[in-house]
Design goal:
The structure holds 3 protein chains of 3 kinds. By secondary structure, chain A is of the alpha/beta class. Chain A contains 10 helices and 14 strands. By secondary structure, chain C is mainly α. Chain C has a two-stranded antiparallel sheet with strand order 1-4. Classes of the chains: A alpha/beta, B mainly alpha, C mainly alpha. The interface between A and B is large, with 50 and 48 residues.
Amino acid sequence: MKHWTRAVVSALATSAVLVLAACGGSASGGSSTALSVAFLPKQVNNPYFNTAADGGKKAAKDLGGTFTQVGPSTANAAAQVPYIQTLTQQHVSAIVISGDDPTAVAPALKQAMSQGIKVVSYDADVAPDARQVFINQANAEDLGTTEVDLLGKELNYTGEIAILSASATASNQNTWIGYMKQELAKPQFANMKLDTVVYGNDDDTTSYNLTQQLLQSYPNLKGIISPTTVGISAAARYLSSNHLSGRVMLTGLGTPNQMRQFVKDGTVKGFELWNVNDLGYVAYCAAAGLVKGTITGKEGDTFTAGSLGKFTVGANGAVLLGKPFVFDSSNIDQFNF
Amino acid sequence: MMNRLRSLSQRMTSWELLLVALLVGVLINGANQSPYFLNATSFSLMFSDFSEKSIMVLAMMLIIIVGEIDLSVASILGFSSAIVGDLFAAGWPLWLAIVAALVVGGLAGLFNGLLVTRLGLPSLVVTLGTLALYRGAAYIVLGERGISTYPNVFTQFGFGDIPGTLIPWTFLIFAVLAIVVGVMLHSSWVGRQLFAIGANKEAARYAGVAVARIKLLLFVVSGLVAALAGIIFTARFATSRADNAVGFELDVITVVLLGGVDIFGGRGSLLGVLLALFTVAALRDSFALANYPDQVQSILVGVLLIVSVLGPLAVKRLQDAWIKRRHVVSSQA
Amino acid sequence: MQTKSSTSPTPASGAAPVDTSLASVVARIGQAREFGLLVVLAVIIAFVGVQQPRFLQISNFEHILQSIAIIAIVAVGETLVILTRNVDLSVGSVVGFSAFASANLLKNHPSLNLLLVFLFGCAIGAVLGAVNGLLVAYAGIPAIVVTLGTLNIYRGLDFAVAGGSEVSAFQVPTAFLNIAGDYVLGIPLLVIIAAAIALIAGYFLRYSRQGRQLYAIGSNPDAARVVGIRKSRLTFMAFLTTGILSGFAGVLWASYFATINSGAAGGLELLVIAAVVVGGVNIFGGSGTMLGAMLGAIVLGVIQNALGVLRVDQFWLQAIYGAAILIAVTLDALVTRQVQRLLIARRAQRE
């Protein structure tokens, strides 16, 4: 009987707490009227996203709102979901997310939207019905083709290449890789062969080790494209420390600060990126526009992003930031991020 | 009324009373840390968040009571999630993929159990090895892929509440299992056998208890429950990934030990475990709302784990010292 | 968890507390294990070498040794712990913490003497290892519980200290980064350091009194205490040493990988334990050699390299580590059972 008592007590205790909690007021309804925007990047210990966050913080100051950044320490979609739920519980006015997986985060985002929270995606899009606006840093086809063209020129259009990507589920890299493969099928690249695509998950150690393995598995490798700032940084370090600069050409997307020494020592001749700071700034402004009601995300909507000017929402809620920019030895010293 | 309360509290052990105090403390702290903590929707999300861990706790409790341990539960969860994803992506109907994953989970548990009962290997080492083996199997099945194209009805089950209430569907599964375990453990002869095995394996065997068979069965159950947790996880996160639920075993084992189940087997109660479950869930939720990342929350859980074993040991040592001193005093008197 | 019953060597008066015939039997089996590992190595090398001749190049072996050097250093410590019938799951977190802390220290004080940085890393490892040691040896909490807890506590502290930031390669002096890539007399410096540590530790284990006492503690803790071996102290020292070695390895890790965040060396403990167990160190304590542990690390390193050369997905690695642990432990159990039967038969014969 003693044990039945225990069971009863525990049941009572649980229901008592639930009742207590319910009396504490339910948290339904719309978002707060203040402007509180939370950035949820693919992962937090990533300099690329920290730079975007700087842009967001500046926009917050300019617009009189608040800025926070939360996120998982590994680029993992399942890890992003609890953060979305916490933000929903906290009733932020908008979530700005770079998705590790476009469909995995969708149910949680939709739940947030049903509570009145606005959702903007940046850098890596999520399912279109799980967000109102997507800030695209550069035209995907442009990026894919220019990356391949860059490497092709450096290799004289001959040789085996490999791609060192981020996570296998991120929509941005996957879209770019799709265009890269398309470009490689063109006749001028007939003497170049794509050996494999490997995924470093935006983790430096993994990407470093993968570079090692690539060279082991494919000893005739002549070039690597790494369309992720973590990947290119790790690969450059590996090539440089193992005196392979010049023997294996490396290009991709990188930040000037991380790449500077490798451009100087010849490991990387040229690489691309865009103004990451601006990306964060525009994303915040878009979120603010949604919260204030000045835009709804439908095609043709326009909003202003401070000194960066006016931006127009295109098809499918996408906003284009601009064109990719090529960094090389002639201009790399002019930038600091 | 006071008399009834007093007799209730007498029937609860001192450890359980301590747990109530700890729980209240965590709730109050949570309310202080964030205004969004103490309300019904928040609690609903909190229970939902702990769905997988709570059912795994029930199975782990039984395993530890008989004096074993299963470190591989999180890997079996991940493996089963990977199986569902892989089969579903290959075109299998979802329900069949789920059944396959459950079967695989049971087999994984069976493998654990056979190594422990037939070969006599310590469960600690076996499940440490299978922790790696099953996680590796998940990677072999899924690679770097993430399967997230699940039908709405599946993700609704994982995400949603019973219509009209704030009770998550997944909580229902836990409630049913908890009642089953509670009745079995505390009110049936099966439960008494489990405690007997944990208290003294040899004596239990001489008394006619089928020790090996029961342990084998418990490992299979642990595997099945972990696989079920994998299904729930997949529904809740709407994604199958090879690294799903890495590290879950920390919370599961902490809740069981914090709940008063003896690490060496033979003792424990469902009430204590339920209180501990609530405490750890509330702890994680309150700190998440205060924007502390996962890893920092784990510091507290790790401390709780150590304290929950250190506490009773320290108390026992103090009691022994006290008894010794009283003997000395009385013999000197 | 119930402790298993073990063989009880009759303690001789004064000298070595183990029965010499037991020691010789175990030693012979140990040697058989090391021989077995060499055979396994030879088979793998031959098999892969036939398929991909470049696997056989000296530079490739150098490369393998370099890649497992850091793990081998941690494995030395883990061996000591496992010999005493314990386990340390927190080594990965200690390595990671030390790696980030030392990289961060250098980032903020780039002109700091590198030797001080290494001492700093060792000190961190010492503190973390000491906490483990206190809880296991003196408070009597099972090592699995303690180190599962500290694995998460230390990783969480690492995270809290790092605050989501990372130390990038260009933020630390190149002299530091060059350490991991340096060569001395044609051999990678990392390999020399690892070999030196393993040799010193192996010598200590084999020829010192405390070394033999470690074995005694592992094979029969109660008898060891009765005989007067200071079990708590030695167990504590084993954990402390593991901590220091992990801290040292952490600094080397920072030098080797250069860009460090709070996730560094996550999951390392699995690889280390697999290496030690595969190397013949009995998970039940009491037997195994440093040479065996190093061979275990080399075998795993060769397997990883072979996978890359054969273009097999690296995903197989985790499963292989798990399978390796299970196979090694099963073999150990079967061997231990044989030894027990042998001893019982011998004792029956003598009476």
